[in-house]
What does this fold into?
Amino acid sequence: MMVKLKRILLVEDSPNDAELTLEALSEYNLANEVEVVRDGQDALDYLYREGRFSGRSDGNPAVILLDLKLPKLSGLEVLKTIKSDDRMKLIPVVVLTSSHEENDRIESYNLGVNAYVVKPVDFHAFINAVKSLGIFWAIVNEPPPGSIA
It folds into this structure.
């Protein structure tokens, strides 16, 4: 059975964490459907099809994996923008962060995040967590209308 893959937007400023995330997703052939951006402004440019993303195809990603500690605009600012925009508020957003701060978790849920995952320090735990996220959001979950499918 051929599974139709769905696009994932990974917003991660750490090259190492981005590489590990892509490695984990590649086991299920999901990595080639991942768009990686390194800061909050690029994430919004991607979503709004502005700047260097002005020519990208229509539609929203099936899920956004969002770090909180980002240059230019924080992950919380990106999340607030996404969830306050009727065109994007249904996009599932998973915070994937190293932040254990209770305030970050509370604010993320107040803004409408779908899940909050603290990056495990252990390599294998991190890989397994990302694999599980990828399988669920990019294969199992039915995305909202308007997503890139």
